[in-house]
Amino acid sequence: MGTTVGAAAALDPTPLKATARAVTPLSVSIEEILFWTIVIILSAVLAYIVYRAMERPRLRLTPTPDGPRAMRRDVILYAITIPLLIFAWWNFFSAILIVADTNLEIVALTTVPAGIVLAARVLAHVDQRIAHEIAKAVPLTIITLIVVTGSLRGEENIVRLLDEAGQVDISWGALLFVLLTDYVITAIWYWGYIRWWQSRRAARLGSPDTSPETPESASATA
């Protein structure tokens, strides 16, 4: 008899119904949709601005009868703005990696962005298509993973990393290396490729090339 009552109690769906009624229904609000829409738009626009600025040489060339030349004002403008741009790019990639829930610790979160920036800047003077892919793929991939998986670091973890970032000693040699690399690569690109190689190419063709040819356009026409 006791077994029959126990089996009946086990089969009674009343407790299950009570539990089901106790579950709070899930809902999606307009505010949540607008929030993620704004986050995605701002992230995509910011990433686009960053990688479009990184993927090409920053020294402006002016067409002249003797070929493309860098005017004095453009050289001064490049020399002044490139440290600010490198600092902004470095901090942009660092911020993305800090917010994303990765296994990177603070030293890697400082050095990896510097490597991304340097790789993109070197390739910008060699093959802009590859530089474009590097500068675009990293931020967009991380942003996509954050949006799709919601893999964000917790607030306490972000605060801890920011505190540790203040204790990281970045040597002046490392800062100068990051900065001077862009200057050196730009000088090699301008004097070796623009002034020497394109002048020889124009002399072979029998007419001066007055339009600045980028590595990307050269490889496209080859």
Describe the structure.
The protein has 222 residues and is mainly α. The protein has one domain (30-205, 213-221). It is built from 9 helices and no strands. The protein has helices at residues 2-11, 14-22, 30-54, 72-99, 106-124, 128-149, 155-165, 172-205, 215-221. α4 (72-99) crosses α8 (172-205) and α5 packs antiparallel against α6. The radius of gyration is 28 Å and the shape is elongated.
Structural class: mainly alpha
Number of domains: 1
Largest sheet: none
Low-confidence stretches: 218-222
Per-chain topology:
Layout: H1 2-11, H2 14-22, H3 30-54, H4 72-99, H5 106-124, H6 128-149, H7 155-165, H8 172-205, H9 215-221
Helix pairs in contact: 3-6, 4-5, 4-8, 5-6, 5-8
Compact overview of the structure:
Helices cover 74% and strands 0% of the residues. By secondary structure, the chain is mostly helical.
Q: What are the defining features of this structure?
A:
single chain, 222 residues, mainly alpha, 74% helix, disordered C terminus
